[in-house]
Design goal:
The complex is a heterodimer of chains A (about 325) and B (about 325). With about 325 residues, chain A is mainly α. Chain A is built from 13 helices and no strands. Helix content of chain A is about 75%, strand content about 0%. Classes of the chains: A mainly alpha (about 325), B mainly alpha (about 325).
């Protein structure tokens, strides 16, 4: 957070403010206290490396991303091609992860299926962040009637158990990747709004913001240059947790048969296929691979979010 | 306290009203109507018009809403268009299943998370704490639709300790009922364990650094007594809050396990009703689940004001 230190550590500007506004003199102390706090924080960071697991998680997420983007280029078999001479096989050189009861290659289905999870997770959160995040940032800073209204509105919407609404909307509107991404994105908005608003609010009356305003900064400038940089750590951390959350909801929908239509694979419906028709006892591989991939992906996202949270020292209560 | 309670109740009424409007609109503004399913091959324009009139679907939306709401206040949530079962009956038979699933899963979660946190928080960042914290972190990445099939594969198909499907009401045969409910409850408990453990552990660690703990130590009180009587109580508030927030995730979890273990709960009925465009059933279930959810949050908030009087003053 360079802004507050720049403003107050240069004694001249603090002096200036102190002269003009008697109350401001005290802020120098506060600012110093804040900056020493940061130095302490930096010390702790220096002692605590991100660790091996963090890099492992990052590698796994990157690998899943690359595989899903390059799925068409990679030497994979058609995920929907049914090879009747290779039904329910275990892992082999021809089919690295085996085949399902219709002779479809499980590796190809796994990799193509990852697209659904990634698109829903990341695009859904992007929608929530753009709409809810922006609204929260402004609303928390400006306050006033609009803030009260938006806050009450988000409170009421969040009182509604999302899964019930999502199930109903998806079924009536039709399950497609586009629809599900939009719906889950919309569902993320109030949550994102509340978290970002709370963070923005906590900075709105801080000395460095008041100082910037006193020096004639416009609201836009204050929000973008003073508030936003301080909100970003919370934003990133909470976004990552939300991505994991949306991936779980998509998986739940797919498991209930309410996500992308078959035969398009998604990890959720692959797990569902792996449990249907006694497949658990005849061919547990069908369920095992997507379950394992899903576990590793969620674990990686959570871990990275958690390590970043520790690094930025975000209080758990805020999330 | 009285003022606070009045404000909260008013809030509750507003939320309940908005929920009723939302549930109603949710079902009515979406494309598709129940006539196609009911009529089947007899789907002609004339038949359709008659049926719409019979079902009251030809009136303006606000009138349909008021009619529905009026009936709801008399405890009548309507009947299914398809099998003429009343919605209240569907809820009455389904709710105990979900209630039991959530209850058992939460008992398991607390029984594991609390003792574990009490033990590990005494020596944070030591071997035992690291193992427990890392492994519970893994639990966060195990949603019910991942855990449930694995549990079935291992304990039902592989070892044959538990049945893979089936449901016996508790009142009929308690032992059989519990035997059948263990696996589905375990499947939705993983996330709760992780959340409760992590929260309680970090709260306990900060509580243990406070003066009154040092005081208790210097008085020579035994460690278990300090942990339980002095440290656990002030640290248990956020646990309560987390339990409230967790319920939303648990509801989604019960839907998954009901489908996999073929349990006749609310989620099973909801998914079926949605597929068949059974308006009143979807509407009724969504309304009751949402109101129950809000009421529960309200009760938890209320418990908060009793255990932690500071809440009211804020």
């Amino acid at each position: 957070m360079p802004d507050d230190r720049e403003l107050f550590d240069s004694g001249a500007s603090a002096q200036l403010l102190g002269d003009r506004f008697p109350g401001m003199a005290a802020t120098e102390e506060t600012a110093l206290a804040i900056s020493t706090e940061h130095i302490d924080g930096d010390d702790i960071l220096a002692k605590k490396p991100l660790g091996f697991l963090f890099w492992f998680a990052l590698v796994w997420i990157t690998a899943v991303f690359l595989a899903s983007i390059l799925a068409n280029v990679l030497p994979l078999q058609n995920p929907n091609f049914q090879n009747y001479s290779a039904l329910s096989q275990g892992p082999s050189t021809a089919h690295w992860l085996g085949t399902d009861d219709l002779g479809r290659d499980l590796l190809a289905r796994l990799i193509f299926g990852s697209r659904v999870s990634l698109i829903v997770g990341f695009c859904g959160v992007a929608i929530g962040l753009i709409v809810g995040g922006t609204a929260g940032l402004v609303s928390g800073y400006k306050g006033g009637k609009l803030d009260v209204a938006l806050n009450a509105g988000s409170f009421i919407i969040l009182a509604f158990p999302a899964i019930v609404a999502v199930i109903a909307i998806v079924t009536f509107w039709g399950a497609s990747l586009f629809h599900i991404t939009i719906i889950l994105g919309l569902a993320t908005i109030p949550l994102m709004f509340r978290v970002i608003r709370a963070t923005s609010l906590s900075f709105a009356q801080r000395d460095f913001v008041i100082a910037a305003k006193t020096m004639g900064a416009t609201d836009t400038r204050v929000v973008l240059r003073e508030i936003l940089p301080n909100v970003i750590p919370v934003m990133v951390t909470f976004s990552l947790i939300s991505v994991a959350g949306l991936i779980v909801i998509e998986g739940t929908l797919a498991f209930l048969g309410l996500s992308v239509n078959l035969p398009t694979p998604s990890w959720g419906n692959l797990i569902n296929e792996g449990t249907a028709n006694n497949a658990l006892s005849t061919d547990p591989y069908i369920m095992m691979w997507p379950a394992l991939a899903m576990f590793l992906l969620l674990w990686s996202i959570n871990l990275i979010g958690d390590r970043l949270r520790q690094r930025f020292d975000i209080r758990e209560g805020l999330l | 306290m009285g003022k606070y309670l009045v404000r909260r109740v008013l809030q509750l009424v507003v939320v309940a009203f908005v929920i009723s409007v939302l549930t109603f609109l949710l079902v009515h503004l979406l494309p598709g109507d129940p006539t196609t399913v009911i009529l089947g091959p007899n789907d002609t324009a004339a038949n359709r018009a008659i049926l719409l009139k019979q079902l009251g679907l030809n009136y303006p939306l606000w009138r349909q809403y008021l009619t529905w709401l009026g009936a709801v206040f008399q405890g009548n949530l309507g009947t299914s268009y398809l099998n003429h079962e009343s919605v209240t009956h569907i809820l009455a038979t389904g709710a105990p299943v979900d209630f039991e699933l959530i209850l058992i899963s939460q008992v398991i979660a607390f029984a594991i998370a609390i003792p574990l946190a009490l033990v590990t928080s005494r020596k944070p960042n030591k071997a035992l704490d690291n193992v427990a914290t890392t492994s519970t972190f893994g639990l966060l990445a195990l949603p019910p639709f991942v855990v449930a099939p694995i549990l079935v594969a291992v304990f039902a198909v592989g070892l044959g300790w538990f049945p893979a499907t089936g449901y016996t009401p508790f009142t009929q045969n308690p032992a059989q009922n519990l035997h059948e409910m263990i696996l589905p409850s375990l499947a939705i408990t993983a996330g709760s364990i992780a959340v409760y453990y992590r929260l309680l552990r970090s709260d306990l660690i900060s509580t243990l650094q406070q003066d009154f703990i040092t005081m208790a130590r210097s008085k020579g009180l035994s460690s278990p007594r300090i942990m339980w009587r002095h440290a656990f109580r002030p640290s248990s508030f956020s646990l309560l809050a987390a339990a409230g927030i967790n319920i939303g995730a648990l509801i989604a979890g019960t839907f998954v396990v009901e489908l996999l273990f073929v349990l006749p709960g609310i989620g099973y009925a909801l998914v079926q009703a949605v597929e068949q465009r059974d308006y009143l059933v979807v509407q009724g279930i969504a309304l009751v689940v949402a109101i129950a959810y809000v009421l529960l949050q309200f009760i938890i908030d209320f418990i908060f004001t009793i255990v932690d009087p500071r809440v009211v003053r804020e």
